[in-house]
Amino acid sequence: MNATVANGTGISYLESAIEPAIKLSLKPTLIEGIPDGVTAILAPVVAYWAFSGMFHMIDTFELAEKYRIHPKEEVNKANKASRIEVLREVLLQHVIQSLVAYISYKFDPIPMTGYEQNGIWNLKKTLFSLFSRYNVPFFINDQAIEFIYTYGISALKLAFCFIFVDTWQFFLHRLMHLSSSLYTRFHSVHHRLYIPYAYGALYNAPVEGFLLDTLGTGIAMNIAYLTPREQIILFVFATMKTIDDHCGYVLPLDPFQLFFPNNAVYHDIHHQPFGLKTNFAQPFFTFWDEIFDTKFKAMDKEFEHGKKVNIHEYKQFLANRDVERIEKIKKFKSSLADIDDEKKIDENKKKDM
Predict the structure, then answer these.
(1) Where are the alpha helices (DSSP H) in the chain?
(2) Residues paired with residue 31 on neighbouring β-strands, in sequence order
(3) Residue 216 in contact with residue 100, Cβ under 8 Å?
(4) What are 178-199's pLDDT values in tens digits?
(5) Summary mean pLDDT of the chain
(6) Rg (CA), the chain
(7) Residue 213: C-alpha distances to residues 67, 96, 219, 303, 338 (Å)
(8) For position 329, what pLDDT does the model report?
(9) Burial state string for 91-121 with b = 16 or more CB within 10 A and e = fewer than 16
(10) Do residues 324 and 313 touch, judged by C-beta distance below 8 A?
């Protein structure tokens, strides 16, 4: 590559026509004494209990009641699983998840460094050749090329994993609802929480937890060839997003709920009896629900002014449903009373005859 073509000025080795040598050495770990692969196993577990613990504190001390989706007194009344049962099942899932991750980690290559300059140099050479083939002026500076190699490739790999995990979970989750046997044996466990809360996010039957979460992210990780540090980002982010979807709150400035259409209200609808056959998408996007027309439609009016329903609109919707349900019960009881009255009149007529 002709050095005069290179337009960067701050990275000298990219100006050279000579390919940088590769000098491999062990990559320093993020946490001294702990391999990054082990950190990738521990980080999502720590994140789960730290993040869900924050919501549990908000619950316990009633710090954000106006942002709570359902009244506190309804949680224990509506849910069919005790807090101890939920805690036990989540801990079991973390044990299974960590054991599978550790077995996978033992087959991972040892993280090395010393090849990066060579990789960046070759990326610039490849891009320059591509631009030249189509007679396009080469306008990417050296700093941009270094940024693309260092962060851009990782971002693309993680974006692929986000889409893969969403696809995996949507179809498996939907199958669990379409198949009465699968639902009864496995997925009904998760739906014992009609009003979800943060540390119940991974409350599942062990088989479902393995298939839906552990296996799905594991396959995505291996297809994308994620490095241990990329694994940490994927696992921690997915864990925190899942907790936020089940947290039972719509807190202001919550980044997960600001930037993702699939949020706590969206998933809460799925946990309600009226929304059980809708809103299957999780944990990031909603495009599969839109493609398969499984998005909850009863709140279409609330969506007219924006893409998301806010907590006040959702609470009003729930209140209106309660009023309608009570009215239906009253009408039903009234109709039964009318039938009884008619029977009594008929019986009296027969006696008079």
Answers:
(1) 36-60, 72-78, 83-105, 116-133, 142-147, 153-178, 180-185, 206-209, 216-223, 228-246, 255-259, 264-271, 287-291, 311-352
(2) 34
(3) no
(4) 999 999 999 999 999 999 999 9
(5) 90
(6) 28
(7) 28, 11, 10, 30, 53
(8) 76
(9) eebbebbbeebeebbeeeeeeeeeeebeebb
(10) no
Q: How far apart are CA 307 and CA 191, in angstroms?
A: 26
Phi-psi region of 46 (alpha: psi -120 to 50; beta: other; left: phi over 0): alpha
What is the token pair recorded at 249?
Answer: 């709150």
C-alpha to C-alpha distance for 320 and 316, rounded to whole angstroms: 6
Tens of pLDDT, residue by residue over 216-256, are: 999 999 999 999 999 999 999 999 999 999 999 999 999 99
Which among 14, 11, 143 is positioned nearest to 2, based on CA atoms? Answer: 14
Q: How many CB atoms lie within 10 A of CB 255?
A: 10
Helix (H) or strand (E) holding 276: none
DSSP secondary structure code for residue 28 in this structure: P
Residue 238 to residue 241: CA distance in whole angstroms: 5
Q: Name residue 105's amino acid.
A: Y
